[in-house]
Amino acid sequence: MSSSKTVRKLQVVSPVPADIDIANSVEPFHISEIAKELNLSPNHYDLYGKYKAKVLLPVLDELEGAEDGYYVVVGGITPTPLGEGKSTTTVGLCQALGAFLDKKSFTHLIDGAAMSEIFLDNSVDLTTVVTCVRQPSQGPTFGIKGGAAGGGYSQVIPMDEFNLHLTGDIHAITAANNLLAAAIDTRIFHESTQSDKALFNRLCPPNKEGKRSFCDVMFRHLKNLGISKTRPEDLTPQEVKKFARLDIDPNSITWRRVMDINDRFLRKITIGQGPEEKGMVRETGFDISVASEIMAVLALTTSLTDMRERLGRMVIGNSKAGDPITADDLGVGGALTVLMKDAINPTLMQTLEGTPVLVHAGPFANIAHGNSSIVADKIALKLVGPGGFVVTEAGFGADIGTEKFMNIKCRYSGLRPQCAVIVATIRALKMHGGGPEVVAGKPLDHSYVTENVALVEAGCVNLARHISNTKAYGVNVVVAVNMFSTDDETELNAVRNAALAAGAYDAVICTHHAHGGKGAVDLGIAVQKACENVTQQLRFLYPLDISIKEKIEAIARSYGASGVEYSEQAEKQIEMYSRQGFSNQPICMAKTQYSFSHDASKKGAPSGFILPIRDVRASIGAGFIYPLVGTMSTMPGLPTRPCFYDIDLDTSTGNVVGLS
Amino acid sequence: MSSSKTVRKLQVVSPVPADIDIANSVEPFHISEIAKELNLSPNHYDLYGKYKAKVLLPVLDELEGAEDGYYVVVGGITPTPLGEGKSTTTVGLCQALGAFLDKKSFTHLIDGAAMSEIFLDNSVDLTTVVTCVRQPSQGPTFGIKGGAAGGGYSQVIPMDEFNLHLTGDIHAITAANNLLAAAIDTRIFHESTQSDKALFNRLCPPNKEGKRSFCDVMFRHLKNLGISKTRPEDLTPQEVKKFARLDIDPNSITWRRVMDINDRFLRKITIGQGPEEKGMVRETGFDISVASEIMAVLALTTSLTDMRERLGRMVIGNSKAGDPITADDLGVGGALTVLMKDAINPTLMQTLEGTPVLVHAGPFANIAHGNSSIVADKIALKLVGPGGFVVTEAGFGADIGTEKFMNIKCRYSGLRPQCAVIVATIRALKMHGGGPEVVAGKPLDHSYVTENVALVEAGCVNLARHISNTKAYGVNVVVAVNMFSTDDETELNAVRNAALAAGAYDAVICTHHAHGGKGAVDLGIAVQKACENVTQQLRFLYPLDISIKEKIEAIARSYGASGVEYSEQAEKQIEMYSRQGFSNQPICMAKTQYSFSHDASKKGAPSGFILPIRDVRASIGAGFIYPLVGTMSTMPGLPTRPCFYDIDLDTSTGNVVGLS
């Protein structure tokens, strides 16, 4: 299925230069070359410039019946605020699998001579691998965090295009989300100033022959109301009222506006203060765009038809009588689908070593499930074919990210992973073993940069629980220790031993940040063996047909909790969603990633605590209920000196500078 | 320079089908074929799918020294609220020039036989023509107005891509505009909670060696402050304060947030009501994205370097001491440029008959200048070459649109038009002659659809004033009467006679809506002759070096006003901008398009009125002062039954349905 043509040999420099400098030092392949390696012909994709292409959904129909490759998910231990290199490991692993492993002979080719041969001799059949990652939000790129394309010699390139507009998917989500928001407030406004009859006449105006009719989307609304009549003139006055007056309860509206900017001053606002809005003010707010339910829909949808249905059934709040109001009730489900019709196609890019990447969707890992799209994974699995690999990343620690990957994403996709990688660092393990607090922007304590095996060993309880939780899904678990230059051999061995003792299939040390794919060859081999030797079936943590509370409690137990405590508000919401018929959805916990528990300061593997559920919300279009464990910020802010100070365009070359 | 290869012969149907049905009935040429006709090679553009490409700015450098083609601007008489077909005429004229006129022999080829020959015989050398139009806002597409791709058999295709995301330029503007907005409020917040020293330490933190430094954008801020020191440690405490504390007066902030959605509830809002914002609430609001100053910058910029400068010097308000605060003072000018780096490349599309179109920028014709970009026009003029045509549209009536085209756009570009088209309809002329009010959505009065030469003749005073105003710029004026099926021969002749009497170079009847380019062949010939026979130099209505008030008064006289009246607020602003050194900017009047005067009900050619200036604002980055004549809405709303009710995706074909 593949040849060696697009492999790029990296000239590695030490110490590792800045990410943008590495990214800019490489001339990417034209994306049509990457596509060709995947056996995609030009009618399978749309180019977006020279280094990005959208792979078109009909590819899936064409490949129906073809066999899938291996499916690998990369999660992590409970991280420090600095991040433990999950994206970097995902990319590095793929560079190793795709640029260093010989598919046929199952040997690896890591010395320069062998690599040179690859360029001369097409008989070496490299393994086909696709990396599936989320599109990062543009907000943090200009704020504190910087970009999200991996790092060092394991990156997705062009790094600036990856971190900025990409192919416009997040912009499409912003537009769709806010069109729905505008539709809600304007509808309330028009209903407040018009009689039932006037509303009805405006919604179903007579044509030139004086005949009224329902348009397509109105039949969806009628169905939700339980009205099966097809002609406007047949509706009773009571039905006219039900049809024309949604009677939205302003206090029940859960739909907020979004923006892909860190704009903290929009977290809570009052709208409708213009004189023409006649005093219909309302408190609401903006979230960052990736927190939109539409992003979660994009990540979980499986086809255009499925997306149309999901967008139409998104619930924005209730009527005053307590019935859910959907996007289709507002007449806007079709328009939202039109705005999202190109966004459903994943974007093809490449790693530094020329292996293919599908970038698609970026649901917030807080209040959504934090995994890239089902559509991209499905396409990728067909494209790599048997013996090939699709590696995808799950956001946050494995307690949230991998759990949601399994119980939400795989449940909806029907796909079955063979292997789960858990990324660990000595730094984070030391923190879990009792090391001092790690704070972004402050120098690390001495204990983190000098040998301290005791701290590491103590911290392995965190890793061990992630391993046993992940193993319970029926996959083989491979631990990847993302090595830093300050790490000590005995520390690394301690982790390896602890991982194997906790049931990991293998545990390997990686240096892909410093060396690219070459630094993750051992990981690649371990992952390949893990995939080839999977013995169990996928098992979910909970079935869908138990109550909302039972599902929450099953997840809480996996955190180590001995019980769950619901606020009055949470009880009320659970009761309402159950009454509205939404109790059969999977659960998407909104919890801190900095601890197994709800309390970020509880490191290691806490147990015996009571998990408090503050509130419960629903993303009915995306298809999950999300309990809030504590308060989740859905709109980041800017610091005094945001990243944007350093970002500029070199107008002589057109290159971006200062992006980190 | 061109061959006949990409000409498409239309099969015209009567009565004219719906716009989307005509658009969908044609399979567009791959955009690379259109590009090839313009002698563009693949490295000159980036594909965005199959039917759109961004023409890259370096093309301009490559073509430097090449001769320009003819430059034609299309304006209109004072319109009815229904619009008089200015875009449709722009497209139809180009279809006529590009698909029907033989460049060499100056004959037109309108019968079927001749057209068939074109397909067989490449010896016919068709004239090269490029249409330059604005990108429409997505808001109205889902609101009342519907799309803006022209209409009938004179359209830009694919019509759905034109009306929706296109290549993301408006989304880039939204992102850049709102990043600046977030930077403003967050800066005020951080200044309110930190000492001068703390602010300075955060802005210029020490590196690992303990050394502080200014980043590039800070030197721009220092320059604005008149500080020429280059090392942070050399600043006096007074200079540290000046540097670190912008001291923005919240009441002076003119920078608003934007969204490309008709969301009336965002017109006036209160932000900062979250508990973490500590009570720093402020009243502000959202405009529609095309009203952003960044859109005006995009339209008026001439290069990447120029755009960087303009974005950096945009003024967002004043310090409490009354000094202007710019985007660069906030450190964000470079990041804005990075967000806009792809948007500066115009998007190549095609007309129904396969002639090339450059879509670029869409500045609001209310508070900005309402003309497509300088960059697109410049590229197009080089690409068509001598004897070729670039036809561009100016928004609103010629009193605003053509006036701003000449005095703002041409002044900044240095380009010189040879011909100005003025589009008129019998309907609008009857209104100016005293016909009853024309209201969108209500049936037209009888007098508009039956012969009434007297009304038409009376209404020609409006046309006559537009002709004489436009002629004064030194261009030849061609009147295009956009014919409706209800128009009468004697009415049409009356307009022709009146136009010639008022000094028009020619006046012709067009049926391009019903017949495509074939229906505008006479207009094409008239425009060609007008371009070839221009005898005068371009003259501006006012020089830049007179006072703001003198410039406003010169424009007011062109409206027929006998004087200008300034509100107290307007006087204050004029005084401030003059003091800040901004009085040498051109003037961009924000006035209703429905009358020469400020009063939309005054039809025909009113005179002797006093023009009231309510307020005066400035777009310093774009480069104009804009006086507000009355109240301009910068955020449209949605009606009870918005267009979105009919818009959906046919998920079996992927086609958009219901777009109008």
Describe it:
The structure is a homodimer of 660-residue chains. Helices cover 35% and strands 15% of the residues of chain A. With 660 residues, the first copy, chain A, is α/β, with parallel strands linked by helices. Chain A folds into three domains: 19-167 and 342-532, P-loop containing nucleotide triphosphate hydrolases (Rossmann fold), CATH 3.40.50; 170-334, Domain 2, N(10)-formyltetrahydrofolate synthetase (2-Layer Sandwich), CATH 3.30.1510.10; 548-628, Formyltetrahydrofolate synthetase, domain 3 (Roll), CATH 3.10.410.10. In chain A, strand 23 (648-650) and strand 24 form a beta hairpin. In chain A, helix 4 (86-100) packs across helix 21 and helix 13 (304-312) crosses helix 14. The first copy, chain A, is globular. The model of chain A is unreliable at 110-123 (pLDDT under 50). At the A-B interface, helix 8, helix 9, helix 10, strand 8 and helix 13 of A face helix 8, helix 9, helix 10, strand 8 and helix 13 of B.
Q: What's a quick, concise take on this entry?
A:
In chain A, 35% of the residues lie in helices and 15% in strands. Chain A has 660 residues and is α/β, with parallel strands linked by helices.
**N→C terminal distance of chain A:** 36 Å
User: Which percent band covers the strand fraction of chain A?
Assistant: 15-25%
CATH homologous superfamily caption of the largest domain in chain A: P-loop containing nucleotide triphosphate hydrolases
Net shape of chain A: globular
Low confidence ranges of chain A = 110-123
CATH class of the largest domain in chain A, please? Answer: Alpha Beta
Query: For the report, how would you describe the main beta sheet of chain A?
Result: 12 strands, mixed
CATH level-two architecture of the largest domain in chain A: 3-Layer(aba) Sandwich
Helix content of chain A: 25-40%
Radius of gyration of chain A: 26 Å
What does the average pLDDT of chain A come to?
A: 93
CATH topology assignment of the largest domain in chain A = Rossmann fold
Number of helices of chain A: 23
